[in-house]
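REQUEST FORM: STRUCTURE PREDICTION
Request ID: SP-0412
Submitted by: Lab K.M.
Chain count: 1
Length (residues): 161
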Amino acid sequence: MEQSKNTIRKNVAISPGTRVHLRFTLRLPSGEEIDRTNIEGATFEVGDGSLLPGFERALFGMRAGTRETVRLAPRDAFGEGSDENVRRFKRTRFGANEDISVGMLYSFADGDRGELAGLVTEAGDEMVTVDFNHPLAGREILFEVDILSVERVSNEIVRIV
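STATUS: Completed
RESULT:
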């Protein structure tokens, strides 16, 4: 009986209502590694918010034992980026003794008092330009995955946007 359970689990395809255990590496097309799971991997349930929706969609249909590299367009990875996420501030907003320079990550409080990081892209005497887009926005990403196990945990349909 135990053997048939394992066989059934191996035949489950990743879809809404499944729990997935995997290892992954994120790379830029140049080969530069951005992120990776540890050797034990990571477990998530499709739709729980652990992975961006584009990464989850790329896994749909894969089964335990699958090893694949998926090329994700910016819109399916960290987004295209938007000029609306680039803001200019008076330098005085940063404090009189604050040393502000291009390339610096600066932390701001958002409307809900959460933390929002921005990258300083210009630092003039009067004004500072900060980019709040994700640092990988507009970049194509290689998503290398090794699916370790897939199991059905729910028959409820979850909408992935």
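NOTES: The longest strand covers residues 141-152.
Reviewed by: T.R.
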